[in-house]
Amino acid sequence: MSFWSPAFKIRPKIFLNLARKFTVSQKYFEAEETIPRKNLYPVTLPRAEATQALKVILAGSAVNKKNIFPNLPQIKFDIIWGWDRFSEDGSKGQAKDNTSYGHNVEFAWLLMHALDILNLPVKKYIHIIQKLYEHALAHGIDWEYGGVFVEGSHAGEVCDREKEFWQNAEMLIALTRGCLVLNLEEYWPVYLNVHRFVFDKLIHHKVGEWWPLLTRQGEPTWTHMSHNWKINYHTVRSMIETIKRMELLLERIK
């Protein structure tokens, strides 16, 4: 589902009425392949203001408004991603010189998982996998406060020292897999570091979900719980896959 909004500033009541009607009726519209050159009204509504209106459009489009209204404070629409987000405890340089420690180890463990499914040897790609692990562990782990930094340069320098939920979730899986396939003695202390940060800082135990974004020290920056990449993706998968690999580690130790 997409949210439709007028691209220009008009009276609030008319704006919301049009946005609601466009949103719920979007399946009846056909997109034009090209923009017509005539009779175009100039865009006067900034993207940020359109984003701010999304929650109100959602509420206005709901059939049962009594159910949606109490949950509005926990819903967040965000157009900021990764590099675009300002980092209070870090500096951002060239956009092309940027890599994510979480994405790198996620790719590494997913590659190993795919090789297992295809019944292919991990050994063939081990040099790629090790390089991804080595970079992430050398530069992406915070040994002072715990957890995984958001991102940094290809050379290794950290440019965003905040702690986001999904990088830490993927690191837990990757480290338990690293303990099984690569080096238990090397990766286990790193796992303990990330595990403690996740369970002491990242998880909001009263709610049963993870804070979306924390400062380097572990204080919540974003406090909304609802997120389309949490419950149905990173956080639950992290716990399931980590438990599976922990069981394999326990069997190996026995």
Structural features:
254 residues, mainly alpha, three-stranded antiparallel beta sheet, 48% helix
Write up what this structure looks like.
By secondary structure, the chain is mainly alpha-helical. Helix content is 48%, strand content 7%. It has 9 helices and 8 strands. Strands 1-2-3 form a 3-stranded antiparallel beta sheet. A 3-stranded antiparallel beta sheet has the order 4-7-8. The chain has a two-stranded antiparallel ribbon with strand order 5-6. A hairpin with a 5-residue loop joins strand 7 and strand 8. Helix 1 crosses helix 3, helix 5 crosses helix 7 and helix 7 runs parallel beside helix 9. The radius of gyration is 22 Å and the shape is elongated. The mean pLDDT is 86.
Q: Low-confidence segments, ≥5 residues, pLDDT <50?
A: none
* Helix percentage: 40-55%
The largest β sheet comes out as: 3 strands, antiparallel
Q: For the terminal residues, how far apart are their CA atoms? A: 50 Å
Strand order of the largest sheet: 1-2-3
Shape: elongated
What letter string, H or E per element, gives the SSE order? HHHHEHHEEEHHEEEEH
Q: Cα-atom Rg, whole angstroms?
A: 22 Å
Average pLDDT figure: 86
The total of beta strands comes to 8
Strand content: 5-15%
- What's the helix count? 9
Structural class category: mainly alpha
